[in-house]
Specification:
Helix content is 20%, strand content 29%. By secondary structure, the protein is an alpha+beta fold. Strands 3-12-11-6-5-4-7 form a 7-stranded antiparallel beta sheet, with no helix packed on it. Strands 13-19-18-17-16-15-14 form a 7-stranded antiparallel beta sheet. Helix 4 crosses helix 7. The N terminus is likely disordered.
Length: 359
């Protein structure tokens, strides 16, 4: 398939990086939707958000609309958010229901996705309701986070995470007790891969975040890879600076456990909270980034967060990153675009990301 002069859609690397058209071409984006986003485990929410039977939340996995619901037995079920009659969207947002009811023609399904009711059923003389159910997806949890995978034949969640849970357990707060205390989102004119590449490298910190993240000890940041993912340990500086404008709480002689879970999740721990970035590609040149802030009860009591004040501080760091990503996106059509060299250690995460994509 020819998509850009002599370039093809085959995921081969050009020089040390991806060719520019990988960041704007419609057919590359469609290929990623089919391969990357439909066959990987992706976080969609927290178990604590669905405490009761009938509680549900909706999410997009790439371009696939899904919902997760707690059934009558208290188990989580993940299903495509698509009525089997004529394909209408069943749910929006979050809520609770006793049955799954299509808003178009009122077909109803139980909480396990089995068709139960059809209005004017005599109009469907050959319909066997026992053979019709909503298309399911895999669902599993770790640390209170709900993950789903559209591929019914995919490896288990724990195999996919490849040791990431053991890494995050070094954090001294119980992951299962985290509760959301703030959230917001950004929509940016940036290809999703640039956002990932920026997150998994720290070479830009001393230039882009010299003031906003100066409680971190930049030279001692270390990135290691596990499976498709990157683990990033970020030490704090030994001495607190006199005037510190920082979104992150200073914690001398300790580590912030951060990392990227392919393809769309970034996790960052701090003394007073955990921040999670969830990435959703909207088009080849547009992405949504959700910022989710969590605290345990102990953190809520010790470090109460004013969501508006906290978001304002956090926004500074996010905007610094988005600004440089926009510079990259602006140049992908240039004949001069390319990666000449990647910094050892500091850009290790980008090299690993390229390898994972090429596979």
């Amino acid at each position: 398939m020819i998509i850009n002069d002599e370039a093809t859609i085959a995921p081969t690397l050009v020089s040390l990086g991806l060719p520019g058209y990988y960041y704007f071409h419609d057919e590359v984006f469609a290929h990623e939707m089919r391969t990357v986003w439909r066959s990987t485990w992706q976080c969609v929410g927290r178990e604590s958000e669905l405490p009761n039977p009938g509680d549900y939340l909706t999410s997009l996995i790439g371009n696939q609309p899904l919902f997760v619901i707690r059934n009558a037995c208290g188990e989580l079920q993940a299903m495509h958010n698509v009525c089997r009659h004529r394909g209408a969207r069943l749910f929006e947002g979050m809520g609770n229901c006793s049955v799954v009811r299509c808003p178009y023609h009122a077909w109803t399904y139980d909480l396990d996705g089995q068709l139960q009711g059809v209005p004017q059923v005599h109009l469907f003389p050959d319909l066997d309701k026992s053979t019709v159910r909503l298309l399911s997806a895999q669902v599993d949890t770790w640390g209170g986070f709900i993950f789903v995978n559209c591929d019914s034949q995919a490896e288990s969640l724990m195999s996919y995470l490849a040791g990431f849970p053991e890494y995050l357990k070094q954090y001294d707060q119980p992951w299962e007790e985290l509760r959301r205390v703030a959230s917001w989102s950004y929509t940016e004119p940036i290809n999703w891969k640039f956002i990932v590449e920026n997150y998994v490298e720290d070479y830009h910190f001393s230039t882009v975040h010299a003031e906003s993240l100066h409680s971190y000890d930049f030279p001692r940041i270390r990135t290691t890879t596990t499976g498709r993912h990157c683990q990033i340990t970020v030490p704090y500086t030994a001495e607190k600076l006199a005037k510190m404008y920082d979104a992150m709480t200073w914690e001398p002689q300790r580590l912030s456990y951060q990392g990227y879970i392919f393809p769309n999740l970034m996790i960052n721990t701090d003394l007073d909270h955990v921040s999670v970035f969830r990435l959703l590609p909207l088009s080849p040149v547009r992405s949504c980034i959700e910022v989710l802030i969590y605290q345990t009860r102990a953190q809520m009591e010790a470090f109460p967060i004013d969501p508006d004040v906290f978001q304002g501080k956090f926004h500074r760091v996010m905007e610094e990153d988005f600004a440089v990503c926009r510079l990259l996106q602006a140049n992908v059509h240039s004949l001069a675009y390319g990666v000449t060299k990647l910094a050892i250690e500091r850009e290790l995460g980008i090299a690993h990301f390229y390898t994972v994509l090429s596979e």
